[in-house]
Each structure stands twice: as C-alpha cells, then as structure tokens.
Amino acid sequence: xxxxxxxxxxxxxxxxxxxxxxxxxxxxxxxxxxxxxxxxxxxxxxxxxxxxxxxxxxxxxxxxxxxxxxxxxxxxxxxxxxxxxxxxxxxxxxxxxxxxxxxxxxxxxxxxxxxxxxxxxxxxxxxxxxxxxxxxxxxxxxxxxxxxxxxxxxxxxxxxxxxxxxxxxxxxxxxxxxxxxxxxxxxxxxxxxxxxxxxxxxxxxxxxxxxxxxxxxxxxxxxxxxxxxxxxxxxxxxxxxxxxxxxxxxxxxxxxxxxxxxxxxxxxxxxxxxxxxxxxxxxxxxxxxxxxxxxxxxxxxxxxxxxxxxxxxxxxxxxxxxxxxxxxxxxxxxxxxxxxxx
Length: 342
Description:
This protein is 73% helix and 4% strand. It is mostly helical. Strand 1 (172-177) and strand 2 form a beta hairpin.
C-alpha cells in the first residue's frame, strides 16, 4: 500500500502530535465515519425510498447525500488508515508513494465531492426560489428529467474542475499532509513561481462565486417570503384569494431549510478558502489547516441533522424507516430463537 507523504514539512512540534492526540484524532475520524454513513444512508432511504420525496428537490438532496457518503466511504477511512500506519511506524517522514498512489484518487475525490455539494446547494436554491417567486410555473420549468440532467452536469463539471490542477499544471502534486491529515494538492518547490498557485486558486474562486450567488438568491427568496407574510391578511380576503398566486407553506419551509444548508456550508467552507489563499502568500498554518479541512469534512453529516430539525415530514419518515428496521430485526431474532428451541 502506498501514499505520497509530505516529508518536507515536519511540523509535529507545532501540530497535535503527541501519542494521546494521535489516538484522539483517530477516534474522532472513526466516529465521523459512522455519523456520515448513518446520516446519509437514512437520507437516501427517505428521499429515494418514499414516493412523496421523489421530486426534483428530493433528487437534488439525494445527490448531495451521495457526495457526502463518498467522503465517509473513501476520504475519511483513508485518513484513518494513514494515521494508524504512521502511528505504528512512528515516523512522520515515511514515504508510501511508489507502488500504489491512493492520494491521486482520494485528493480529487474530496475536491470533487466538495464542488458537487456547492453546486447542488446552488441548484436547490434555484429550485426553491422558483417555487417561491413563480409558484404557478414551478411544475412546468422544474421537471424530474431536467433535474437529473442538471445533477449529471453538476457531477461532471465538479470532477473536471477537481482534476484540472493535475491535468493543466505540471507543478501540482498530491501528498498526504502531516498537518491537515488529508491528501492535499501541493505545488512543487521548483514550480512555486509557476502557474501552480493560480490553478489552485480556481477552487476558492469557483466556490465563492457559486456560494455568493446562492446567498444572493436565498436573500431574494427570503425577502419574497417576508413580503407574502406581511400581506397575508390582505391576500386572505375573498376578493383576492383566487387572484393572487402564493407559495405553499411547504415551499416556504423548504426554502428556509435550503437557506440553513447554505449558511452551514458557507461557514464550514470559509476556513478552507482562507487557508488556500494563505498558502498562496506563503503561510503554512499547520494547526489551522487541520481544523479547516476537518470542519469542512464534518459538514458531510450536518445535512441530515438540518433536515431532521427543519422538516417534520422527513423526520417522521426517517423515524418510520428506523422503527420498521428494528421491528424486522426483532422479528428475525424471535424466529431464530424459536427455530433453535425446536
């Protein structure tokens, strides 16, 4: 097994590199894997396993859950493997990278899933804003077929951008970083004056362009909701009730949920953007890089919490699915016990 390892930056003396801290970090990663896998599995079961949730919004949320699941299945377990390997060998300057370079897969995967999450939240915002601003046109404009096509394009464009540093700049390499405890893009020493840094800046530029647009659209949507709320008594009058199109209560609640998702992702992504820009101007920020990358990674288990808090139908359906699962398990155990007694 192999992975490129950042042996040029031995930062153990300033990062959390005591034996206890290493063990706690590994425990944190394992718990995070469990949370990501459980939460996003429930999300997929709800949105794809229930007729009520098989809507354009449901497909987009399922796409978001798949991206988060990929982080829990591949990215975080790889960091656990790397940390355990380094802990057992007790040498931060080990190079794993000659025979099977997993970082060339894990690094772009994490970057691609992050970009998919941002673009999906953007698409969710567009879908909900259309339902709020133009409720009568929502069904005609936002169809399942168009949503599936947009999801495909989102994944294609996101992973194309994630691979661009390796494809368009010779100075970019992937390494397992001793500070962030992840596979990161890095610019080789010979290429620091080259276009390598400019290519890496594509990530925060693209991300903040989409996030900024998402925030603006969310503000428009929430402003419209406020206007409808202020005019509620006026619109409730009989002579206006049939003439004015208003968004449904469920559309309003869903728009607020998407707004919460946007805020959560913006908060979790901002430290990464700051770190990348800081690297460009020459700062290493070892401890900060660890918190920046893992704050973003923990976002992969936030969405199911937000859905559970904000969406009563989602919460009810998730509870139903878990109860059915427990009942089946109990029934199977009873059957096995009775067969043994016979």
